[in-house]
Amino acid sequence: MSSVNIRYFVHDLSDAAVKRRVEMFTDAGADVALVGFVRDRRFVPEFSSATVLAQTHNARFLHRMLTVLAQSMKLLVRRDTVFEADMIIARNLEMLVLARVVQMRAGRQIPLIYECLDVHRLMLGTGLAPRLLRALERRLSRSCAGLITSSSAYVNSYFQTIAKITLPVILIENKVFGVPTTTRCQPPAEAPPWIIAWNGAIRCAKSLRILDELTSSANGSIRVVIRGRVSHDQIPDFDEIVGRSAWIAYKGPYQYPEGLDEIYDGVHFSWTIDFFLEGQNSALALANRIYESGRAGVVPIAQRTVETGRYYDALGIGIVLNDVSPERIHAALKDLTAADYIVLRDRCKALPPQTWTITRDESRRVLAQLLTATGLTDKLLG
Fold this sequence. Notes:
single chain, Rossmann fold, 2 domains, six-stranded parallel sheet, 15 helices, 13 strands
């Protein structure tokens, strides 16, 4: 396979998931150049060669779309953004708008791939704005050669049914990349107390309230350790709730992937329940924490009625509940013995490492799928 030059248009250059995707494509043999926005100026993009267009903001979708349109006007007069590109990948709808403008300006036909890893709540509504956005997405998708997504539920429950988009699908699960498949993580030698890890993007206010009530009612027999970047715009009282709790500790952000062993070491369970955009995106997503905690052999606590729960049920692991109220979770844990836990843990550890991690072979397979979808099969033979 000869080198392929990818221009990757992203919504947030400082997103750890962007770093993972770039490294994955690079490991497969591609050359990747980034173009995009930043959400928080405090977090400087790690890619010195990235083209930074402007700053945007979380939870302000329409503002981001307007910012993208403004930038597209500037890029209309430039061709150098994709001068050497063999392929363009646009991460999220707003970046697809920008990438399509650049594609038209390039003066030659450059294959375009749409990457969509979350379905924004506006895309699922019934009002005028959601219908217009879906029409825009559908119109732009006609210029795309393929669709990258992370969960088959997105394809079945949104793209094929609501959005009416039927592109070739390249499924890239949110697996761990960049660390060994083995881990040094170990649960505490004795229990209770049972320790639950809630790691990653901390943006679910309902989860925090459930965990607060759960740990309070357990009176120290269940504890929670939180690590990750907190979205205070979604959980404005996060500091207050954690500060007054004797059984919940927040230990700050962590480095990905270097910090994965540390954040899952010394815990029994992983909180994989998410009510952010409840009944919408959270019902369809398979989040990073599923794979990160799976690699560590940590037992998940999950909700059966969403895609995450169905994923764990298919694997035959975890504490998967229909009712995820504090009372029901407490009931599931309070009579659990150390021997019971070892059985649960060993089921997780018995799964093949490829369940949770991306190998170089898988990276190459994904790149080969992209090359096939875009008609760049000569790169496969090179």
